[in-house]
Amino acid sequence: MAFAEEETTRYLGTNLIESCGDSEDGLTGWAPSGSCTLSAHADEDASLPSLAAALSAAAGDEDSDEDEFQQRAPRPSGRYVLAARRASDKDGLCRAVSRAPIRPNVTYRVAGWVGLGAAVEGSHAVHVEVRVDGGGRPVGGGVAVVESGKWGQIKGSFRVDGDEPPRHAKVYVHGPPAGVDLKVTGMQVCAVNKIPRLRHLRKKADKVRKRDVVLKVSRRTGVDDDTTASVAGAHIQVVQVQNSVPIGSCITKAGMQNPEYVDFFTKHFDWAVLENELKWYYTEAVRGQVSYADADELIGFCDRHGKPVRGHCIFWAVENSVQPWVRALSADQLRAAVEARLRGLVSRYAGRFPHYEVNNEMLHGAFYQQRLGDDINAHMFRETAQIDPAPALFVNDYNVESANDPSATPEKYVALVTDLQRRGAPVGGIGVQGHVTHPVGDIICDALDKLAVTGLPIWITELDVSAADESVRADDLEIVLREAFAHPAVEGIMLWGFMQGHMWRSHGQLVNADGKYTQAGNMFAGLRQEWTSHARGKVDSNGNFKFRGFHGTYQVLLTTPAGEVKKRTFDVHKGDAPLVLDMDF
Questions:
Q1: For the region Disordered, what residue ranges are annotated (predicted)?
Q2: What is the dihedral of CA 190, 196, 197, 201, to 10 degrees?
């Protein structure tokens, strides 16, 4: 192992900055950033001990791995640093990462607690950013939206890409408006040790996604009655033909011209979504000139190959994703155009799509709401369901899983869903896009847990990672896939492309332009095999064949003593008790 790798391994899980209590005055290492004054304090209202109690309760989770828990849960010390007299939202605190150098291509997590003074009402975003070598652009960090007078937990991450390690790294804390006091305690920066987390996720997936099955196998002996006989000793094979958690990808018309692209898609994916060909700016770039020809071509291909297609998307809430002629309409004209789009698209494909994403990225845009009123988003859901009651209607947004965007916290996403439901919108699912950078598993899981309280199914809808280093890319993708697959609320995973030259994001491919699999592609194919159950053996003396398999659809093949092969199909659904099935051949 190279020296740099040995050093990184040695510091896995170790905090690379000293805590507030490491010096007598509590300020060692902390310095003002911008215009403010710093002072150290002990918590006077006992709120920090209550946070520690909450962490202790979390540590008792029977599904937690102790090594993994120690990485992700900094315990408040009871002392904090206060930044007061802040002149702007950029003013705050900073300190060096000093205990060990930052290594390139290693994911680090940032964690800690931040609090606000009570001088201003409401909630405010607190940003923790990591900058290297005096650079102006942060390499990562995290965001917490904190109520005035209260504490919130920071969960973030960063990575320095490339071959050269940075000479210096600093953590900066800022964000609330000028005049709001800012508190920090328990700040941690540590290299992520993914091994305990992956071990935990394998155990969790076995518990969440698999079930014991007992096949009671017999052979009919009568033609006109139900007489059966044992087939003990017969050879039996069980093959899973479909997993209950489909994994799919977006596809494009250009990609479908490439045989290698088509081959990878048909071999490795269960579902499809059209990357652009169904979006309004694509189907009606010029007012009144509507064409679904490209969409029909792709949907026809998927129909021929048995791949269900998600409807993406009817509308897009972000203004710069709305075509110019729509942006130029008056309010009355826009309302008429919205109704025409709804009727034209949804009626055309009635009964064809199992899902629709109705108004994309409402956490990040409000084009229709600002022009047509607060009820327009819910109206889109209601009207879509009226025209085509079959599909589940999804919200869909980005950064919700990353803990780095104050506009897209899980809490704000849940509030959006709740408001839509209050207005009568039949929201049928939550889309978490998954355009991730340097992902950390428990941060993703925390977001999924918070969204799961809605009781709605969650889909990862646009998953991609970006890393020039192939091994880093494969690791990042594996982390997100395993987190999603092991979470009980997640019911499907869609990738946002897979082949070099046919992806929205660079350095994200599973397969190169020449058809060669990357490390990420090999890892992905390996996971698909790992998450597929097959079993073979002989029927026991009691006429039973037992196995444990992933939820989904199976085919069982029984070879009789005469050499005849007989087939049956069955489904394994969720359940705690063993599934016992009578199999008469």
A1: 57-77
A2: 180
pTM score of the predicted model: 0.93
CA distance 311 to 521: 26
Give me the residues of the chain with pLDDT under 50, please.
Answer: 1-6, 20-22, 49-50, 52-62, 66-71, 73
Which pLDDT value is given to residue 227?
A: 53
pLDDT value for 169: 92
The torsion angle over the Cα atoms of residues 107, 113, 118 and 119, rounded to 10 degrees, is: -40
**CA 235 and chain centroid, separation:** 42
Please give the Cα distance from 569 to 556 (Å, whole number): 6
* H or E element in which residue 157 lies: strand 151-158
Whose tokens are 């090999």? That residue is: 522
- The total of other beta-carbon atoms located within 10 Å of residue 38's CB is 20
Is the backbone of residue 9 left (phi > 0), alpha (psi -120 to 50) or beta?
Answer: alpha
Q: Over the chain, what is the mean pLDDT? A: 91
Q: Which of 68, 401, 462, 478 is catalytic?
A: 462
The CATH code belonging to domain 212-221+228-241+533-584 is 2.60.40.1120
Torsions phi, psi for 206 (to 5 deg): -60, -40
Residue 7 a catalytic site member:
no
For domain 245-275+306-318+327-332+347-531, the question of CATH label 3.20.20.80 is answered with yes
Per-residue model confidence as pLDDT tens digits over 471-513: 999 999 999 999 999 999 999 999 999 999 999 999 999 999 9
- Please list, in sequence order, all residues whose beta carbon lies within 8 angstroms of the beta carbon of residue 580, skipping any fewer than 6 positions away: 213, 214, 216
224, amino acid identity: D
Sequence-ordered list of residues with C-beta below 8 angstroms from that of 199, at least 6 positions apart, any chain: 65
pLDDT at 75: 61
Which CATH class, in words, describes the domain spanning 1-192? mainly beta
Q: Which helix (H) or strand (E) holds 59?
A: helix 47-59
pLDDT of residue 414: 98
